[in-house]
Design brief:
A hairpin with a 5-residue loop joins strand 8 (about 175-180) and strand 9. Strands 1, 2, 3, 4, 5, 6, 7, 8, 9 and 10 form a ten-stranded mixed beta sheet that branches. A four-stranded parallel beta sheet has the order 11-14-12-13. The longest helix is centred in the last third of the chain and has 17 residues, at about 265-280. The chain has helices at about 1-15, 40-50, 65, 75-85, 100-105, 120-125, 150-155, 195-200, 265-280, 295-305; strands spanning about 20-25, 30-35, 55-60, 70, 90-95, 110-115, 130-135, 175-180, 185, 205, 230, 240-245, 255, 285-290. It contains ten helices and 14 strands. With about 300 residues, it is of the alpha/beta class. Bound molecules: threonylcarbamoyladenylate and magnesium ion. Magnesium ion binds near residues 135, 136 and 144.
Length: about 300
Amino acid sequence: MKSSQSNIKKAKKYLDNNDCIAVPTETVYGLAGNAYSNIAVKKIYMLKKRPVNNPLIVHYHSLEQLKKDCDLNDNFLKLYKKFSPGPITYILKLKKNSKISKVVTNNKKTLAVRFPKHYLFRNLLKNLNYPLAAPSANISTSLSSVKVLDVQDEFGLKIKFILNGGKSKLGVESTIINLLDRPSILRYGALDVSKIEKILKKKLLIKINSKKNISPGLFKLHYSPGIPLRINARKAHKDEAFLLIKKRKVKLKNYYYLSKKNNMDEAAKGLYSILRKIKKDGFERIAVEKISNKGLGKTINDRLKRASKY
Ligand code: TXA
Ligand code: MG
């Protein structure tokens, strides 16, 4: 515990100095910087090679802090009570006098906000007097990082400090919901949409690929392991790794399993690590068997579909 306190102090020092650092969250690792500082936020875009028209999520510790930057509404409060801190990101209206850097939002009037659950990240946020902009800690279009080694694989020595919080518990990014007018889902993620529907007592619009959104749909290739991947495969070709949703009796060298018994939470958690491993093991192509759309299956299929645009 002592060492984690001193690491948080170190992290704070870098952030106060307008540097960006990698931080653990319960979904995936983030590349964090002071959301009120143009300098810090520009560094995030540069490191990630992220197009400037793709806005960032801002991470808060408390509602009090958020109230300074955004207008809150009833749907938000209902969902916040139930799911935050946790793997859900809300799109809210930005206040005119908010201090959020215009670089974070690409001059938009809305802001993506999240309350992360990882105890180290929360502890860090509590010690700062600004919220943290943090996209996933990976080079744009690549796979998100779920542990320190992944972050190092992505950025090498370019990141000055990584706050080590072990392996991310959920392994896929947060679910994004737009709460500006009629609630709509902009990205499938670690929180099952049906759980959100239960709280709001209505079916949600799904706007995953809407051209009007700047959200993830704009970029076709994403979450890519850096080698070709095909989905809904019945069989693997000789040179392909075969990614399967449950264990098989026969063991073949090119078989990789997302779960023992078709469990979608387990599969989502391991997805990015297994894709990274397949590439490290030397395969140059991946075939993935058909995966059901139940629960987090939707999120897994969304990521695999984008990865298949390679
Ligand atoms: O789990 C997560 O959400 C992780 C951890 C680090 O918190 N973060 C993450 O951030 O996945 P990022 O930048 O990789 O993905 C954020 C997505 C982007 O695709 C962006 O287009 C969308 O959120 N976004 C950000 N601001 C938005 C806004 N104002 N309106 C619509 N979409 C927005
Ligand atoms: Mg990302």
